[in-house]
Amino acid sequence: MFYRPEAGHGLPHNPFNAIVTPRPIGWISTRGADGSDNLAPYSFFNGVAYVPPQVMFASTGAKDDRDGTKDSVANIRETGVFCVNVVEHAMKDAMNQTSGPWEATTDEFDLASIEKAECSEINCARVGAAPASMECKLTQIVQIEGAANYVVFGEVVGVHLRDDCIVDGIFDVLQYQPLTRLGYRDYSVIRDKFSLKRPGE
Fold first, then answer.
1. What is the pTM of this model?
2. pLDDT for res 66
3. For 172-189, what is each residue's pLDDT tens digit?
4. In the beta sheet, which residues pair with residue 28?
5. What's the Cα-to-Cα distance from 84 to each of 16, 41, 72, 136, rounded to whole Å?
6. Most buried residue, 23, 185, 188, 193, by most Cβ within 10 Å?
7. What confidence score (pLDDT) does residue 67 get?
8. CB 175 within 8 A of CB 15
9. What's CA 121's distance to the chain center, in Å?
10. 2.60.40.1220, 2.30.110.10, 2.40.30.20, 1.10.10.10: which CATH number matches 5-189?
11. Contacts of 61 (CB under 8 A, 6+ apart)
12. Is the pLDDT of residue 65 over 90?
């Protein structure tokens, strides 16, 4: 089949998210200017550069109590920092609990009984038991086409790696099994990997 998004797809559910899969999940922790902590997952997330290391996540939609955006973007606008926490399969239920449209004053760490730790380089909380956390300083927020669509870019200024995930000097994803986002309400988990050499190596 072929369809033009502006004309609709004619299917029971939008296939777009099912096409762009699997997607890593950035579990974004932020702290508002008032000191309140927030934690929310974003599947429009990825690394975008090596030197300096940089990441991005996109926020779509808005909450009535956040002036045209969501808690994460609102907090980052105020403070200029955020932390990206990696989601392991064992944390899937806690992650899902933090995805709700909770009030801006809600601390999702407490809501989902998640261990909280302080970041080292920025004034922000992080998921204490996460396989990895990347402390980020905001570089830019770009508004893209559509209502309440924002892409947040940040430079990674500190990295936490859980010791049990480092095997023979390699950060081994199979030690924690990353959770990935598919389409609809579907997720998957990475339990297998293989390597390929580039041409000429």
1. 0.95
2. 86
3. 999 999 999 999 999 999
4. 40, 84
5. 24, 9, 11, 8
6. 23
7. 80
8. no
9. 19
10. 2.30.110.10
11. 70, 148
12. no
